[in-house]
Write a structure and sequence with these properties.
The protein is an alpha/beta fold. It folds into two domains: 96 residues; 150 residues, Rossmann fold. Strands 2-1-3-4 form a four-stranded parallel beta sheet, with helices on both faces. The protein has a four-stranded parallel beta sheet with strand order 6-5-7-8, with helices on both faces. Strand 1, helix 1 and strand 2 form a beta-alpha-beta unit. The chain is elongated, with a radius of gyration of 24 Å. The N and C termini lie far apart (56 Å). Pfam families: Kinase-PPPase (PF03618). Bifunctional serine/threonine kinase and phosphorylase involved in the regulation of the pyruvate, phosphate dikinase (PPDK) by catalyzing its phosphorylation/dephosphorylation. It comes from Paenibacillus pinisoli. Keywords: Kinase, Nucleotide-binding, Serine/threonine-protein kinase, Transferase. This is Putative pyruvate, phosphate dikinase regulatory protein.
Length: 266
């Protein structure tokens, strides 16, 4: 049986079209369809070969081509071969032209230009990794955002998500046996955010974590009384810092990050 694909084609890196393709795949139960990416396309011959391959495998194409000649060639070839091709950026760019009367730069890869924002994002990602999980208390002073909370309240994934927005984030786990470092209490030029969760939900997450690690479910880590004690202690620390608190129970990382970024902007 021929392997079906979503062919992702771009005259730049192709991350935008691939992100859309992945989001689409998540809406379907089928695991048979794979993604195949072709980046930095420059010639009509390259496009013709990809369209021919898509026709042979019974697949379709998702593309972000900012060069109008290549976009037109993709449209013509896909019609000629009977292949469905989805122009991810074209309609949006045309809407911009029609609405605002401005014309695109037609430069592939502008999203990934090596500019100040790019360097700031890379620096923030490195910062988040370096100061994850309270590894070095100095990060609590240097960070723009400090996330505090008990174990498994999404501190690390939230730190990484925010770092991709160019925000320097450090995070610190709270537990009754360990006093928070003095750096946490220093006067801010940073935003400290407490993360909390409903105890029943936290118990479920920690139990699954123990199962994944092959550890007994009876461990103290997933004990209901222990969890409540940790949450109560964390709440007292947050109250002492007078910091805003977000209940992350059933809240997506993107939603929590959006709240924090709004606070930062204010």
């Amino acid at each position: 049986m021929t392997q079906p694909y979503i062919y992702v084609c771009s005259d730049a890196v192709g991350e935008t079209a691939e992100a859309v393709a992945k989001a689409t795949l998540r809406q379907f139960a089928s695991e048979d369809v794979k993604i195949k990416r072709y980046s930095h396309l420059r010639t009509e011959d390259e496009i013709a070969r990809i369209v021919a391959e898509a026709a042979e495998t019974g697949s379709f194409i998702s593309y972000t081509l900012v060069q109008p000649e290549l976009r037109e060639w993709m449209r013509e070839e896909s019609v000629r071969r009977g292949v469905r091709a989805v122009d991810v950026m074209g309609p949006m760019m045309q809407a911009f032209v029609d609405t605002f009367g401005s014309f695109p730069k037609r430069e592939p890869g502008l999203l990934h230009s090596i500019d100040e924002a790019y360097h700031r994002r890379i620096e923030a990602i490195e910062f988040a990794v370096k100061y994850d999980d309270g590894k070095d208390a100095r990060g609590l002073v240097q960070a723009q955002v400090v996330l505090i909370g008990v174990s498994r309240t999404s501190k690390t994934p939230l730190s990484i998500f925010l770092s991709h927005k160019g925000i320097k984030v450090a995070n610190l786990p709270l537990m009754p046996e360990v006093n928070p470092p003095e750096e946490l209490k220093q006067e801010p030029g940073r935003l400290i955010v407490g993360l909390t969760m409903q105890p029943e939900h936290l118990l479920e997450i920690r139990s699954e974590r123990l199962k994944t690690l092959g550890l007994p479910s009876s461990a103290q880590y997933a004990n209901q009384e222990r969890i409540q004690a940790e949450l109560d202690y964390a709440a007292s620390v947050m109250a002492g810092l007078n910091c805003p608190v977000i209940d992350v129970t059933n809240r997506a990382i993107e939603e929590t990050a959006g709240i924090i970024m709004e606070w930062l902007n204010k």
